[in-house]
Predict the 3D structure of the following.
Amino acid sequence: MLALRVQPAGPVEAQGFPMGTFETTAFIRIDPDGTVTLLAKNPETGQGVKTMLPMLIAEELDADWATVKIAQADADQSKYGFQLAGGSLSTPLNWQPLRQVGAAGRQMLLTAAAQTWKVPVAECSAARSRVTHGPSGRTATYGQLASAMATVPPPDLASVTLKDPKDFTIIGTTRAGVDNPAIVTGQPVFSIDFTRPGMLHAVFEKCPVFGGAVVSANLDEVRKLPGVRQVFVVKGGTNLEGLLPGVAILADSFWQAQSARRQLKVTWAEGSTADESSAGYAKVADQLGAAAPAMTMRTDGDVDGALKAAGGGVEAAYSYPFFGHAPLEPQNCVAEFANGRLELWAPTQTPSFALPMLAQTLGIEPSAITIHLMRTGGGFGRRLTNDFTVEAAWIAKEAGVPVKLLWTREDDMTHDFYRPAGYHYLKGAVDAAGTIVAWRDHFVSFGKNGQFANSANMGPDEFPARLVPNFALHASLMPTGVPTGALRAPGSNGIAFVVQSFIDELAHKAGKDPLDVRLGLLGATYLPAKAPAGLFPAFEPARMRGVLELVAGRSGWRARKTSSGRALGLAFHYSHMGYFAEVADVSVDAEKRVRVHKVWVAADIGSQVINPGAADNMVQGAVIDGLSQLMYETTIENGRAKETNFDAFTPLRMRQVPAEIEVHWLKTAGPPTGLGEPALPPIIPAVTNAIFAATGERVRSLPLSKHGYRWA
Amino acid sequence: MAYTLTVNGRSLDADVAADTPLLWVLRDSLRLTGTKFGCGVGQCGACTVLIDGRAIRACQTPVSAVKGRVTTIEGLSDDGSHPLQRAWRELDVPQCGYCQAGQIMSAASLLARNPAPDDATIDREMSGNICRCGTYLRIRAAIHQAAGSAVSGPGAPVQR
Ligand code: FES
Ligand code: FES
């Protein structure tokens, strides 16, 4: 799963994504024995694309899903188009081209049959991996047509006709994950399970302070330890996303390498990041937040005038912390370097970003690199960055043997690309009718020279921009040596908490129902965008109203009873082209123990939910992921991450999960959009808004544990 | 040191240091990679296997301490037909799938002791297994579904 903040600032090509080309015959293989094999092009990280993307091909190919085989494609954009698990982009970028691929294949099979039978193509039809000639009743399986099909040139994808959605028999029906049989019997499907003949197991010790370098190490002592074959220093560079300095230990087994590592003593040059801490950032943020902002990203109307007219308005400071990804499969990669060629078996979300970095670091041509995409045990945005692949590749080249590099959980938690903390200094005003008339956000974030750090940015049109007549968004930046990156629903996972909480504050200030204030806001005059229109359609307030009304109805919001200690909370958020509104039923006891009893989700991702069963699973998982973010954080101390394992950085466990998470789909016009991310952001403020309704305590900073809360 | 283990009904040898966790003997020496590494400290349950029918954390169990018959996900059934494996497929439980071997082995141990657990029991017994993808609601439902079927085969408790 996925995360990549794609700014709606231009078409995908313009953002530097190598789009590649779709080659019909690379996606569809038909063997004479009748086996239809479809290639799954994108990395599977748990978001279900290994099943969902081939469904698109199979639909238009009229393949029999029950007998179809799915194979994972290697990284090769000249055949498979842009290969990425990120930005909830698999659906929007492939919805049309993969159906065209399927339709092209179908057309080739119909042509093959018509030529074989010497009948007009128009008299032939296809269903369930079989072509039938209507007038004569003659039929042939796709397998029987395989050799004839091989002589038919693939048609231009733009020329093929796609099905009317009402004729879909696969799209819109639940299809179980294609790897499920292998997963539940423990077959090797993940890259961590992969081995090569003669392979050694590698561990790699890096400086606990981000960006630190090796000064010296007791390499000779470590070399003598049982099973150890090679020990060497990797000089590395200073790019935190690339090859960093460290010590590699290679042994016959992981346990031997890891045991030897415990005897390793390294003297590090820690560098200046050693002085940085979460507490220090918060202090600087308060100073910057109180000072004049460094940048202005958007202004509409007269915020100062509107605040003054409202008697000063409401003022609040919100913040959220650094946060790691911790996919359950630790980072790993198998690499083999021989005869100037590199071969990798990698759990990467972004093979096309790995390629140039590998080529440059190893000093070889991209054409000398093969990347096999392996099923990954979760991504959440962590594997958008390919540091572990370049480590494995370098170590394998240096060692001259195939290598499996495996990180420990401690390596993973202390060398992540963290969701950056964010600090929002807000002022707002609401009139007696419950209309939000003024909004100012001074966003204090990370970066330098006016450039935001990775995933530390906020766009000028971010909601509620364009719907509040007097609006200003400013930003000030502080530097950080901590590597930052995209965490599932990047930006949105923090911003939704801030925006949806502050709307709630304003609603309560006006004495209005938070639902009505939100509906009113979504019905306000829509001001022009500041960012140029791009690949993605702009936010449509009417669609958000749709899901908001749906979730209010399903949760019984209007008839809700709030007792002391238990209440409903409401929030919505638009990200990755998806419209999500969520309600949480939350209780808080006298010891501040929190229980989320039930969650209602209303979702609009367009006209189709391609694989509904998997979609429900994904939404429920995103809600649980969001709930996890409420209670813990990555703390930066002395330039390093303090939490090193699941004892201190703990995703939700089963006993903390709501008894029920209802998912309701609102189908609207337009092509379907992605689902990896947009369900996550609203649940965080839905819960904190419920906590306010239940207790009167407004939570303005995360995690909840900082304020004495814990899970019941 | 040479150790002989009974794994999935077969007698297998491994020449490893005494402190080597069963997890790494299974994965690296015996090439049974269905059992997963998630944390190495007993916090996530990805490494759960059965010893004489009871769930243990293989990352916390040195090979020298293993007494009894080990069952891993590969040996839960011959053909993926264990009621839990069937229920997992029928309810399409996995997302990334990485935690699921451990989840299934914990559930097998639970059902062996309690053939019809209620929600509270499932929640308590399964809370040592993290699912980072959040498939808990389906795991819970799949355990209920499997509980309706008889548990037999290698995943069943050993009568002693
Ligand atoms: S790997 Fe054993 S409990 Fe996590
Ligand atoms: S399915 Fe991914 S960790 Fe459970």
Notes: The pocket of FE2/S2 (inorganic) cluster (ligand 1) is lined by residues B 37-40, 42-47, 57, 59 (CB under 6 Å). Chain A has three domains: 5-163, 191-271+331-406, 278-323+418-524+538-711. Residues 1-15 of chain A have pLDDT under 50 and may be disordered. Residues 191-271+331-406 of chain A form a domain with the Aldehyde Oxidoreductase; domain 4 fold (CATH 3.30.365.10).
